[in-house]
Amino acid sequence: MNKTKLRTQYKALRKNLSEVEIEEMSLAIANGVLALDIWDTTYFHVFLPIEEQKEVNTEFLLHLLSGKDKEIVISKSDFTTRKMTHFLLTDNTKIKKNEYNIPEPVDGIEVPSSKIQVVFLPLLAFDTKGNRVGYGKGFYDQFLAECLPETIKIGLSFFEAENAITDVFEKDIRLDFCITPKNCYRF
């Protein structure tokens, strides 16, 4: 299936999820992350969910990372350049929703992309080869292209893998893992 159809299908599926389902599945996803061999790294990039889009609630993941004394990095998006600026999440970080309801840091200690070792990615769908479908703006492809090649890319999804995404582009960056409430996919 192509990206446009997948976006429509998975937005509809997410729209039907209840708050209780989102919480339970998000907790299962965070527990799935525990099984990954990623804990010898320090800098973890985590997205803050757009609640209105019923994205995976990363609060459980944030608690997990914090409990393991990891450096947590969050981003601010510039919709003009489609670039993301990354900031260390600290006790003093002020979060504010932007015009697209994306929770973002107001300011803080900037972290270069090259320092980030693990990236958790929001997505709408993914396939058995690690290709992913997001909202189609290219923010994460641009960000991941700035990261080191060994940066670990982990998708978080409420739903299982599609067989294939038919319109993958050369510049699309594949996932290394995708965690769902029931499975851990390794690519």
Automatic annotation (TrEMBL):
<comment type="similarity">
    <text>Belongs to the 5-formyltetrahydrofolate cyclo-ligase family.</text>
</comment>
<dbReference type="Pfam" id="PF01812">
    <property type="entry name" value="5-FTHF_cyc-lig"/>
</dbReference>
<keyword id="KW-0460">Magnesium</keyword>
<dbReference type="InterPro" id="IPR024185">
    <property type="entry name" value="FTHF_cligase-like_sf"/>
</dbReference>
<protein>
    <recommendedName>
        <fullName>5-formyltetrahydrofolate cyclo-ligase</fullName>
        <ecNumber>6.3.3.2</ecNumber>
    </recommendedName>
</protein>
<keyword id="KW-0067">ATP-binding</keyword>
<dbReference type="InterPro" id="IPR002698">
    <property type="entry name" value="FTHF_cligase"/>
</dbReference>
<keyword id="KW-0479">Metal-binding</keyword>
<dbReference type="InterPro" id="IPR037171">
    <property type="entry name" value="NagB/RpiA_transferase-like"/>
</dbReference>
<keyword id="KW-0547">Nucleotide-binding</keyword>
